[in-house]
Amino acid sequence: MISYQVKAFGEPLSRTDHPTPAPQGSQLLLRVLAAGVCHTDIHTWEGSYDLGGDKRLSMQQRGVTLPLTLGHETVGEVVAVGPDAPADVREGQRYLVYPWIGCGECKVCRRGRENLCASPRFLGIFRPGGYSDHIVAPDARYLVGIGDLTPAQAAPYACSGLTTFSAIRKIPADVLAEESVVVIGAGGLGLMCVTLLRAMGCPRVVVLEPDGARRGAALAAGAHAAVDSAGADAAAQVRDAAGAVWAVIDCVGAASTVQQGMDLLTKGGQLILVGLFGGELSLSPALVPMRAISIEGSYIGNLEELQALMELVRDRKPRAIPTACRCLDHAQAALSDLAAGRVVGRLLLTPSSDTLELASQP
């Protein structure tokens, strides 16, 4: 089994050859067909998050140990099952793997909110992930059918899709049905947000993004307007396109974008933060109640939400975001390109030339 691992934070990924595990108990072994490259992978590889003011949250503080195989957006084909796995999961079936796994025992997990578990066991962060030719799922309940999607189309739904779907569900139904929603950022996360907003009935999506190519991708994904966030009149352009701004989803999460999002809100508006770029923000507490605005964090999503998302995708067929597949051997270059802002849409890794072809086939 070949995996690309972080062996030292900030150092190039290391190719590792090790025995392919045999699934135990309820585990399932899947051959990886596509693994998304996400900004969370960059933070994990680099070893910390920027908290602003020269403060950082290290991966060791989060409980991450090395070596670690990255990758939490994974589609695979079942190749072996443990003795306790259900009989209806068979070799050859393809699934999206839900990666946001908790301890399974605490009250948060029992409520079905494993993504918020205080002792997480996330694949690709705390357990081996999809930057490999095989991945182990701990239980069949974490496998979600992909229908007639290709592996490359389906894989990003495990993170960028789920994260934005969960955020969109936090917008009141009447606002979502009647008002514009502003999306900050048109990377893989932001583009996914645009496609899902349109599929979920939002009448108008306005995107703020400094990169011209990404603004074009946002319009192709279904946005009604894409505004250069670096422009001096960006706020005026957004209000011209959106009207009163009742909801903003910030897919970047930098101090500057959070401030921009707050400034755009009308009285009673809602800012939902999903991006993790970092930094530090100065906030006047008195203005929050005076403007009656809400600022809410939304952290990935739970298993039920991923199942609901994939049902939505099957039923409403949102536009696909741009994707490009690379061989697993190019994992480091893919990470570096994403970190440098050279990617429009989503990069996917596939273990070999044959899986590179399979990743694009339903």
Quick recap:
The protein is α/β, with parallel strands linked by helices and 362 residues long.
Topology at a glance:
Layout: E1 2-6, E2 14-17, E3 28-37, H1 39-46, E4 48-52, E5 55-58, H2 59-62, E6 68-69, E7 73-81, E8 94-97, H3 107-110, E9 134-137, E10 143-145, H4 151-154, H5 160-168, H6 173-178, E11 180-184, H7 188-199, E12 204-208, H8 212-221, E13 225-227, H9 234-242, E14 245-250, H10 255-264, E15 265-273, H11 287-291, E16 294-297, H12 303-316, E17 323-327, H13 331-339, E18 346-350, H14 353-358
Parallel strand pairs: 11-12, 11-14, 12-13, 14-15, 15-16, 17-18
Antiparallel strand pairs: 1-2, 1-6, 3-7, 3-9, 3-18, 4-5, 7-8, 8-10
Say how many strands there are.
Answer: 18
Strand content: 25-35%
**What is the CA–CA distance across the termini?**
25 Å
Measured as a percent range, the helix fraction is 25-40%
The total count of helices amounts to: 14
Low-pLDDT regions: none
Instruction: Return the average pLDDT rounded to an integer.
Output: 96
Instruction: Categorize the overall geometry.
Output: globular
Query: Using only CA atoms, what is the Rg?
Result: 20 Å
Largest sheet: 7 strands, mixed
Pairing-aware structural class of the strands and helices? alpha/beta
Describe the structure.
This protein is an alpha/beta fold and 362 residues long. 30% of the residues lie in helices and 25% in strands. The chain contains 14 helices and 18 strands. The protein has helices spanning 39-46, 59-62, 107-110, 151-154, 160-168, 173-178, 188-199, 212-221, 234-242, 255-264, 287-291, 303-316, 331-339, 353-358, and strands spanning 2-6, 14-17, 28-37, 48-52, 55-58, 68-69, 73-81, 94-97, 134-137, 143-145, 180-184, 204-208, 225-227, 245-250, 265-273, 294-297, 323-327, 346-350. Strands 3, 7, 8, 9, 10, 17 and 18 form a seven-stranded mixed sheet that branches. Strands 13-12-11-14-15-16 form a six-stranded parallel sheet, sandwiched between helices. It has a three-stranded antiparallel sheet with strand order 2-1-6, with no helix packed on it. Strand 17 (323-327), helix 13 (331-339) and strand 18 (346-350) form a beta-alpha-beta unit. Helix 5 packs across helix 7 (188-199). The longest helix has 14 residues, at 303-316. It is globular. The chain starts with a strand and ends with a helix. The mean pLDDT is 96.
